[in-house]
């Protein structure tokens, strides 16, 4: 729902508090297809933009945003029974050092 800069700030601050290889962040949000989104997801996307300058994101957009906040996506849970999928993220670790 948040604009990229606000969302990135929220996720980056969360990432900074996470313990590498022990903590995970779970984000419940709509994940749009790259093209051909249905009426409901498209309407929600427009609504988010109108009320707060936010957007609904595609998998690629989520990957870019999560990556820029110092995390990587472990998995994106399925959209089952009308519930929004869960995006599971973890802090990046490189050669034994945490990357932020």
Walk me through this protein's architecture.
It is built from three helices and seven strands. With 100 residues, it is an alpha+beta fold. The protein has one domain: 3-Layer(aba) Sandwich (Rossmann fold), CATH 3.40.50. A three-stranded antiparallel beta sheet has the order 1-5-4. Strands 2-3 form a two-stranded parallel ribbon. A hairpin with a 2-residue loop joins strand 6 and strand 7 (97-98). The mean pLDDT is 83.
Please give the structural blueprint.
Elements: H1 4-17, E1 25-28, E2 31-32, H2 39-52, E3 57-58, H3 59-68, E4 71-76, E5 86-91, E6 93-94, E7 97-98
Parallel strand pairs: 2-3
Antiparallel strand pairs: 1-5, 4-5, 6-7
On the 0 to 100 scale, the average pLDDT is: 83
Helix percent reads: 25-40%
- Which overall shape is indicated by the principal axes computed on the Cα atoms? globular
CATH architecture: 3-Layer(aba) Sandwich
| Quaternary state of the chains | single chain
Number of individual domains = 1
Give the full name of the CATH homologous superfamily. Vaccinia Virus protein VP39
Proportion in β-strands: 15-25%
Count the helices. How many? 3
CATH classification class:
Alpha Beta
CATH topology: Rossmann fold
Q: How many extended strands?
A: 7
Let me know the largest β-sheet.
3 strands, antiparallel
N to C succession of SSEs: HEEHEHEEEE
Secondary-structure content class: alpha+beta
Distance between the termini: 24 Å
């Amino acid at each position: 729902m948040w604009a990229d800069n606000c969302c990135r700030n929220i996720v980056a601050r969360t990432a900074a508090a996470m313990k590498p290889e022990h903590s995970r962040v779970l984000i419940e949000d709509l994940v749009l297809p790259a093209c051909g989104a249905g009426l409901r997801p498209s309407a929600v996307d427009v609504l988010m933009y109108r009320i707060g300058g936010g957007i609904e994101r595609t998998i690629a957009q989520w990957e870019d945003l999560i990556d820029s906040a110092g995390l990587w996506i472990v998995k994106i849970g399925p959209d089952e029974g009308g519930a929004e999928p869960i995006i599971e993220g973890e802090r990046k670790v490189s050669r034994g050092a945490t990357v932020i």
